[in-house]
Structure formats: structure tokens, C-alpha cells
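User: Please predict the structure of the protein below. I'd like the answer in C-alpha cell form so I can feed it into my own downstream comparison script.

Assistant: Understood. Taking the following sequence of 241 residues as input:
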Amino acid sequence: MGLLGIGLMAKVAGEVRRDIGAAFTRDPAAREVGPTTILALWPGVQAVLAHRVAHALHENGVPFVPRAMAAGSRLLTGVEIHPAAQIGEGLFIDHGMGVVIGETAEIGNDVTLYQGVTLGGTGFATGKRHPTLADGVTVGSGAKLLGPITVGAGSKIGANTVVIHDVAAGSTVVGNPGHPVRVDGRRPEGPDADWAHLPDPVADALASLSERLEIVEREQGTKPAEVRTLRPRRGPNPTGG
């Protein structure tokens, strides 16, 4: 048992080194500090470290302690990770506050989660009920991924997106419910997504409808509809205010 414990701690130590390396690679604020500072002050890294140990203990049947560690980590970092969740190497949780990772969630290698992300379940079903994220997935702030869905490798989930269906590899998904889109006609590259310039599928649909209406009016020779500027109504407030 002693040798097993040493082996587990060695494995955890190797995973933590890669987690710290992920912070250096994907967080510009981490590039001017050392590994000790990141380990001491980056809550996302601390939460993943605590989970590595709690998960190893959980896998070896240790009672109570893994859940106690998860609860303590949530209190200190604002990140809640169930001890049974399976997390690959190089996970980076940026800022961390409000991140929730459920019991049957599976996360591949080199995944990035921003603050407020939920990998949650739906209903009260048992068994596999949380998302699976393949390698290289990036999930934006406030996004909710719900149910036993699979997000393919290299996909990007926009901020505040709600995803309830499988996502093909290399996709960018935005909206509520989430819609797969493309950026500039191609798959976005790199570990980060330009959240400020992701396409809006609703706005694109309205613009396309407006263009089509203009073509129809021109073909039929009808006068384009008059567009009136809305102005505040003057006089007494009809609501009595």
C-alpha cells in the first residue's frame, strides 16, 4: 500500500507540473511570475491540484476524505469538482470562480475552462449524466454544458452558451440553445477564442431575411417599406407615472 501511495503521488506530481505549464501557456498574467507563485495564488490551479489528490484517493476507495477535500477546495477557490470526475492533463481553469464539474464529467487533455462554466447533469437519472470534453476544447465564461453530451476535439464554446447536444470536432458554438457557427468561414485556431467577435446566428438570419425581402420588392416593382424612426412619446405617461 505504501508503494502504491508513492506511485499515486508521483503521478499526481507529474500532472500538476503540466497543469502549471498550461497556466504559463494560456494565461498572459502568468508569464511574469514563477511556478511557486502560480501554485500559491492561482485558484484554478489550486482547485485542479486538490482534485488530483482527491480523485486518486477516491479511485482507491478511501471514504470521506475525497469529498471533504472537494468541499474545502470549493470553499477556498470557488471551484467545485466532484472527486469522481475524470480530468486529463493540462487542464487550465482561468480565474475559476463559479466553475462546477459534475461526478461523471470527463475532460481530455489541454482543455481550458473560464469562470462560471458548468459541466452539469439533467434530471435525476443515474449513470453517465455529465458532459465529455475531448482534447483541446475551450469553454467561455458562463457557458453551461448539460447532460451526457460529447464535445469534439478542438471545439470552442462561446461565453454564456447553453449546450445540450453533441458538438462535432473543430466547431465553434454560440447562443442559447447553442448553435454551431464558423468564424470568417473557417475553424478558429489557437487555444483562445475571440469572444468579442463571435458571430451572432440570430442577427445573421435577420440580415439575410432583410436582404431577401429587398430583392423580392425590387423584382415585383413594389415600393420599399417606409422605415420610421422611433421617438419618445410626448405628453402624460399612459401608465400614470
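That's the full C-alpha cell string. The chain has a mean pLDDT of 85.
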